[in-house]
Amino acid sequence: MKGSIRQRSKGSWQIVLDIGNGADGQRHRVYETVHSTRKSDAQRRLNELLANVEKGIYTPPGRLTLAEHLHNWLTGYVKSNCSLRTLDGYESICVNHVVPALGHVQLKHLQPQAIQSYYGKAVEKLSPRTVAKHHRLLSQALKYAVRQGYLGRNPCDLVDAPSWKPKPMRTLTEWELQIFLEAANEHSPQYYPVYYTAVSTGLRQSELCGLRWRDLDLDLLSLSVNQVLYKRRGVCEVKTPKTQHSRRRVSLTPKLALFLKDYQAERETLYWELAGKPLPLDSFVFGFPGKPCDPSMLSHDFAIIARKVGLEGVRFHDLRHTFATLMLMRGAPAKVISEALGHASVAFTLQTYAHVLSGMQEKAMALLDEILPAGVTRNSVAKLSPTL
User: Fold this and answer.
1) Scanning 115, 153, 211, 254, which has its CA 20 to 30 A from the CA of 126?
2) What span, in angstroms and rounded, lies between the C-alpha atoms of 325 and 322?
3) For residue 58, what pLDDT is reported?
4) Average pLDDT in the 263-286 region?
5) Which pTM was predicted?
6) Residue 271 and residue 277: Cα distance in Å, rounded?
7) What torsion, rounded to 10 degrees, do the Cα atoms 20, 22, 23, 24 define?
8) What is the CB neighbour count within 10 angstroms for residue 259?
9) pLDDT beyond 50 at 388
């Protein structure tokens, strides 16, 4: 493949890409304009085009459809910059929804009206929140097309995503939590340790499933989140935490530390009976000998127990919300809770649990009332001092 660059005017460069002979035997060239004052920007774009042609994923911009662009975006940008779970989710949205509706449209002919019409039809079958995710995906993909020079502007900038209201956060009261844990201990003793640890630490399900014995320091009442476990396409995979905030140290309550010590002793005995050797430090805390705890089975078991005790609709993740809510209601600092949860900032924690904080105003005012003295007006002073 060959390519060349020539300056058309000040701040404008034309790329000429020779893509070889076509089916008609004629030599074919593709032209693309790069608006920049530096030739190096045009050279960088030429190198990208040559690499895409070499990989077989280049389509001349004039005939590039949205379906082709989404494929190139997924296999190129998303695959190398996002997690595999994110890639799977994006592929599902593209294949099942966006491409059937808009995939045939050439990228340069994609109008905001067509995108808005797609949203209008999609909300007839899907929730507004789900369609809002489609908008976010399209916007990111088309923003990438602008950077690649396929579009002059992003048509999604002129489109309104469906509005939606988040569902009220569901947390367990102290009484509901006690009822749930008692039922779990009776009906699912193999998963009870996970539930008890989840509500005692606020760890995510993936963090609990990826926890190893070497990550625990029960004497110092702490654990470290060093890896997570996801289930992708039926296969459990261990990965590093997604962000630096997720990789963290979490303090344990004395009750939880004592419980885990007893639980560890039980697991060591079981492993010795099965394998005839000590329990490896790299084995999963909540797994079975040689196997991790299956996230799907864990969620399924949780839902069954929740229904049994009348907590229909409560999810495993709500144990994490329950932990944060109980901590806030006991007066724990928001920064401490934010660090335990692995949030990126205290502001995000405060925003997520704003409803809890607003309900604590009366209690805070009552504490302030105990500290401040009673107010004194001029009339009250005059009554105390008749000479004034």
Assistant:
1) 153
2) 5
3) 61
4) 91
5) 0.71
6) 7
7) -120
8) 18
9) no
Does the structure show a pLDDT above 60 at 22?
A: no
Alpha carbons 361 and 363: distance in angstroms, whole number: 5
What are the Cα distances from residue 15, in Å, to 58, 64, 146, 284? 15, 17, 17, 55
Q: Which residue in this structure is represented by tokens 């048509």?
A: 155
Q: Nearest to residue 247, comparing CAs of 339, 173, 326, 174? A: 339
Looking at residue 56, what DSSP letter applies? T
Strand partners, 3: 17
Q: How far apart are the first and last CA of the chain?
A: 101
Distances (CA, A) of 311 to 20, 71, 171, 204, 207: 66, 42, 10, 20, 24
The owner of tokens 């996230």 is 295
227-235's contacts with Cβ under 8 Å and 24+ in sequence apart are: 228/204, 229/284, 229/292, 229/293, 229/295, 230/85, 230/206, 230/295, 231/294, 231/295, 231/296, 232/84, 232/85, 232/88, 233/88
Tokens 């890639």 belong to 87
Cα angle: 85, vertex 87, 91; to 5 degrees? 120
Three-state DSSP state, 133? helix
Q: How far apart are CA 16 and CA 4, in angstroms?
A: 5
Mean pLDDT of 186-193: 94
Which of 48-62, 111-125, 259-273, 319-333 has the least mean pLDDT? 48-62
Contacts of 116-124 spanning 24+ positions with Cβ under 8 A = 116/159, 116/160, 119/159, 119/161, 119/162, 122/97, 123/162
Site of tokens 């030739």: 39
Residue, of 278 and 48, whose pLDDT is higher: 278
List the single range of 58-67, 211-220, 259-268, 298-307 with lowest mean pLDDT.
Answer: 58-67
Sign of the dihedral through C-alpha 250, 254, 255, 259: positive
Residue 258: CA atoms inside 13 Å, Cβ hemisphere, count?
Answer: 3
CB burial of 289-304 (b: ≥16 within 10 Å; e: otherwise) equals eeebbbbeebeebbbe
Residue pair 66/150 in contact by the 8 Å Cβ criterion? no
